Write a sequence for this structure.
């Protein structure tokens, strides 16, 4: 366990590893509080998410579902059902810009757990693979706790699971009597309560290291999170180039291809990190123009950073500006 103590402020910091990345948690505690117990609570919550939703784990619920025979029903754990609920909600609201069934496409292009080489697939194979996807194919029963495998359907929660992990860890900390905490999992953040000094939690919006112009040209943006969450998506983490074309790891489920000229970064503030994570992906898929219009029309608190001819370009609807620290 990695922990530091700040008795003067009543804050402690915990940290660890999960989902191929790192997590951290700042918690408001008394100096005598057992930090090892809190660390175990957070790690346990994140391990639960991995056990249910990791496509990299052969024994996870999501992997077992993929291997299930056509016509089989699989009982879903509570956390899995909650994430699937949110994923389908955002899929419907975004017109399919977000889709939890993109796993076969992700793997076809070489971005998935199958470790296929990065490639631009032949058109016929792409069409064949697209036929296996589509959030409308998801069928459930037993109040959402039973999931049908119609044949060849595979789920991918990589654009929502880290956010949910932050939410679940925060819930478990609250249940353990922690009045205020900020949990971050791979850049997705969930905060609740107030710091010991009475102020809201403040976080710096993720900067973009790969813009062709210095990021210093954009002013730093600090968010005040008062029982809220923030997530960032973009094309800078994983991509490849082929014949001069840049292919992002973010997929447009509506075309079956990686997003072309995605915004460098899209940041969303929402009530929970699960929805912030999913909507950041959906708006990235839509693109800066369509995504910005959608965010404004639907009151989504989003920030778009793109690459303009004269440098970094930033757009923030009023809903996002309201979360900026004074």
């Amino acid at each position: 366990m990695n922990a530091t103590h700040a008795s003067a402020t009543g804050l402690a910091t915990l940290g660890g590893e999960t989902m191929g990345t790192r997590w951290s948690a700042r918690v408001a505690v008394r100096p005598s509080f057992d930090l090892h117990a809190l660390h175990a609570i957070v790690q346990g919550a994140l391990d639960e998410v991995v056990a249910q939703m990791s496509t990299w784990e052969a024994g996870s619920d999501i992997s077992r579902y993929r291997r299930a025979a056509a016509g089989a029903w699989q009982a879903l754990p509570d956390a899995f059902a909650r994430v699937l609920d949110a994923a389908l909600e955002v899929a419907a609201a975004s017109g399919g810009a977000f889709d939890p069934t993109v796993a076969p496409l992700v793997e076809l292009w070489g971005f998935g757990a199958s470790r296929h080489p990065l490639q631009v697939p032949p058109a016929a194979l792409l069409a064949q693979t697209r036929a296996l996807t589509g959030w409308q194919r998801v069928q459930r029963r037993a109040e959402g706790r039973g999931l049908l495998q119609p044949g060849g359907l595979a789920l991918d929660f990589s654009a929502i699971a880290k956010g949910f992990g932050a939410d679940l860890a925060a819930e478990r900390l609250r249940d353990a009597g922690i009045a205020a905490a900020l949990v971050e999992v791979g850049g997705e953040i969930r905060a609740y309560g107030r710091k010991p000094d009475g102020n809201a939690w403040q976080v710096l919006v993720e900067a973009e290291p790969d813009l062709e112009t210095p990021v210093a040209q954009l002013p730093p943006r600090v968010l005040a999170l008062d029982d809220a969450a923030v997530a960032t998506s973009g094309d800078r983490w994983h991509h490849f180039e082929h014949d001069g074309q840049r292919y992002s790891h973010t997929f447009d489920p509506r075309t079956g291809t990686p997003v072309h000229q995605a915004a460098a970064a899209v940041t969303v503030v929402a009530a929970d990190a699960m929805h912030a994570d999913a909507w950041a992906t959906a708006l990235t898929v839509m693109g800066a123009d369509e995504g910005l219009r959608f965010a404004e029309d639907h009151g989504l608190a989003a920030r778009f950073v793109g690459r303009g001819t004269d440098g970094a370009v930033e757009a923030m609807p009023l809903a996002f500006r309201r979360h900026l620290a004074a």
Observations:
- Residues 4-9, 210-216 have pLDDT under 50 and may be disordered.
